[in-house]
């Protein structure tokens, strides 16, 4: 076929085929730099030794004092655990202050965890598996049935469904592809 007769295929939507389902995906807010650095420090601290902790803290302080700005998303995913961080801190203070000392120990263990395992029930979505499972992983089901089973302040969530489906949901700010590939392989091995 002569090159003058080659016609490029038109995308199915104005934005292209890859963007055709974009509106169905949850939109999470961009985490403010201060909160992101605090979360990152909480995540890496168990892996650091002695002087490394102090060096990371100094670097975090340098980044906080920088003039970098990030525009924030106006839309927020309405899940129980994705509320304003100050509200989450307030709830944790209340739990720690109760007579049950197990609450404080449990919250500290959760805070220091490098990742969490979320055990979900069966698929709540009657749609095709290729659509239903990603929807359950990313937002806890079509109506967030398992939304309270997600720990949005953790950088890695290993999600295991009752039907045997599994996935890793992770915060891209703390990982690059190489690191996440090794973490994924490790999680699937165990």
Based on the model shown, name its key terms.
globular, mainly alpha, single chain, 190 residues, three-stranded mixed beta sheet
Description:
InterPro entries: Carn_acyl_trans (IPR000542), CAT-like_dom_sf (IPR023213), Cho/carn_acyl_trans (IPR039551), Cho/carn_acyl_trans_2 (IPR042231). Keywords: Acyltransferase, Transferase. Pfam families: Carn_acyltransf. Belongs to the carnitine/choline acetyltransferase family. The protein is mainly α and 190 residues long. It has one domain. 39% of the residues lie in helices and 7% in strands. It has a three-stranded mixed beta sheet with strand order 1-2-3, with no helix packed on it. The longest helix is centred in the N-terminal third of the chain and has 15 residues.
Short description:
GO terms for molecular function: acyltransferase activity. With 190 residues, the chain is mainly α.
**Major beta-sheet overview:** 3 strands, mixed
Task: Give the radius of gyration.
Answer: 21 Å
- Strand content is 5-15%
> Which range best describes the helical content: under 10%, 10-25%, 25-40%, 40-55%, 55-70% or over 70%?
25-40%
For the secondary structure, the number of strands is 3
Average pLDDT confidence is 68
The CA-CA distance between the termini, in Å, is 53 Å
Task: Note the total helix count.
Answer: 6
Q: Name the assembly state.
A: single chain
Order of helices and strands: HHHHEHEEH
Structural class: mainly alpha
Weakly predicted, low-confidence segments: 7-11, 67-83
Domain module tally: 1
- Give the strand line-up of the largest sheet: 1-2-3
Q: Which outline best applies?
A: globular
